[in-house]
Amino acid sequence: MSSLKDLASLIMIPSLYEDGKLHTVKPLADENIIVHPDATDNNDGVDGSTPSTSSNFTFSRGSNLAATRVDVNGLIEKGRENVLLYSQDFSNAAWSKSNLSLTSNQTDPFGGTNAFLFTSTSTANNLFVQSLSNANRVCSIYAKAGNRSNFALVNNTYGNGATFDLSAETAISVGQGSLAVIESVGNDWYRCSVYFSLGTQFLVVLSDVNGNGYSNGDTMSFFGAQMESSLVATDYIETGASTAQAGILEDMPRLDYSGGASCPALLLEPQRTNLFTDSEYFNGWSRAGTTPIFTNNYGTSPEGLQNSTRVQLDNSDIFYKAVNLSQGAYVFSVFGKAISGGSSQIILRVDIPSAKRAVFDLSDGTIVTNTADDADIIDYGNGWYRCILIQDNDTIANAVIEEYNDSLDCEIWGAQLEAGSYPTSYIPTYGASVTRSKEGAQVTSVSDLIGQTQGTLFAEVDSFGVGEVANRILGVSNGTSAERVIMLTRSNGFRFIVTNSSVNGVDYTKYTTTEGVHKLAMTYDANEVRIFVDGVKVTTDSSVTLPSSLNSAHIGKAEINHNYGNNFGGSVKQSAVFPTALTDSECIALTTL
Q1: pLDDT tens digits, residue range 340-366?
Q2: Ranges assigned E (strand) in 430-545
Q3: SS (H, E, C) 9-67
């Protein structure tokens, strides 16, 4: 690729991005810019000049934080949001307060002066509260003892939450508050958190969880409140008049490092929904048997947080979700990790109504047996595997996790049930099913970068959409389907189309295994089109009428401007548009694996 760099007019190698933008490597405002792997751009002029805005791809996925990726450290990264307002300004009217006074400008855990001293003004319950919509969330706040060292985080009513004793560094849970954590962050500050199932309030009580209040004049200090969709508290996100987000944002391109890759690829996926409402909180699943035991927040999960669940099953114990799905193709998956000395052969089963199952050995990452239509196990590092069961065309009553050979003792995390013929990236859920929207990238008004009478398209892709038809990889067009040069997938192969005046002059399919890494190139020049796949010229057509007025380029989406349909399923490692038709030898060199 590097030897042909000077010939290309538009190059996308996933490296520099921001929310809603995927920057190109060429053209750049400054050809000497250094683009760092996995660097985000804040347009501050650091590390070189900002890429030319005219050539940047607009990226779109949707309006929620459902998307995840594998980051440069090999961990699954999510989008995160603090849904509280004025998270460290407790004097604001967004916080309802009673029976207490506030003193601002106190030293906070990070050396600033943003903490508040709370002083009880009554022997009645002293509290501050912010109400939100009903959802499964974890609440957290930084606390420092004054002349009192205990307080409670309460959900909706007293008797339901956790009491935190800073002097003893203990957290005592009651009711829904079954997952409470207290953690020292230094300088006598502690971060205290508790997970609530279907909570509507962030309620801090200067008492214990049962409402046994302070005396008049008792004090404690607080800073940095957060309420988020998670089982454990994540890094604090400051908010003001609106909520704030971090991690993988709504329209942020996903530069993915799956499989231990040293360089990222642009992950592109069609719309999918995780039909499970509790993907990490397995207490929300039904259980059957004599001794099923769950230990929440047991170990470090694939996202690098202590939020995995230890599962101990014996004597035909199971846990399951009743889903009652209509006829269709479905993928059931969960992440699993062996525990030293434990029995680590786990079963995924779907009832359709006859049971279809696969047995996965988490100790060595193998499939022991499989009676489903398909099954796979993928290594995610640190002993974690994603176990996958696929049913091609069935109704499903229940999705079940169970033991094999009469026992199971392992860690699990991140269950997913999605309609489709192949698994997609993990979609976390906390009390309701969640949909990740389809995604793609486009750049318009770049006719000067696209050859009008001759040109070449090139893409290196890793496709996992076997059997998916007409999913776009890379194309140029006039913003409609009437004038276009495109490369796309087809069942068991790759498809190449050239369209002029809404008539396909070329519609060629190279049948091959579409899974895995492939390099594709397509040239057009006068009346001739040549197609190359993995270092081989597969066809030439010398009787083609070329399209006109090509002014837009599209990655992973339909060639129609602003239409995000026909989405590619897989990742794009690099793509390029050349304003000239490369030679056979250049295309062979470009596409050789």
Answers
A1: 998 999 999 999 888 999 999 999 999
A2: 434-436, 440-443, 454-463, 472-477, 484-490, 493-500, 503-511, 516-525, 528-533, 536-541
A3: CEEECCCEEECCEECCCECCCCCCCCCCCCEECCCCCCCCCCCCHHHCEEEECCCCCCC
> Coil, helix or strand for 454?
strand
Boundaries of every domain in the chain: 1-62+248-271+437-593, 96-245, 274-435
Fold that domain 96-245 belongs to in CATH: Jelly Rolls (2.60.120)
250 in Cβ contact with 262 (< 8 Å):
no
> How far is C-alpha 416 from the chain's CA centre?
13
**Separation CA 526–CA 542 (nearest Å):** 9
Go through 230-240 and write b for each residue having 16 or more CB atoms within 10 A of its CB, e for each that does not: bbbbbebbebe
Q: Are 528 and 534 in contact (CB under 8 A)?
A: no
Q: Which residue has the tokens 């030897």?
A: 3
CATH of domain 1-62+248-271+437-593: 2.60.120.200
Dist CA 556 CA 438 (whole Å) = 10
Taking CA atoms, 367 is separated from 370, 371, 372, 416, 417, in Å, by: 7, 11, 12, 19, 19
1-62+248-271+437-593 and 96-245: identical CATH topology: yes
Name the fold adopted by 274-435. Jelly Rolls (2.60.120)
- Amino acid letter, 310: R
Give the type of residue at 327: Q
Pair 569, 466: CB distance under 8 Å: no
C-alpha 192/C-alpha 204 separation (Å) is 11
Place of tokens 């899974």: 515
Report how far residue 379's alpha carbon sits from residue 534's, in angstroms, rounded to the nearest whole number.
26
Residue type at 246 in one-letter notation = A
DSSP H helices in 273-353? none
Total-model pTM = 0.92
For 517-547, what is each residue's pLDDT tens digit? 999 999 999 899 999 999 999 999 999 999 9
User: Pick from 218, 208, 210, 201: which is nearest to 100 by CA?
Assistant: 218
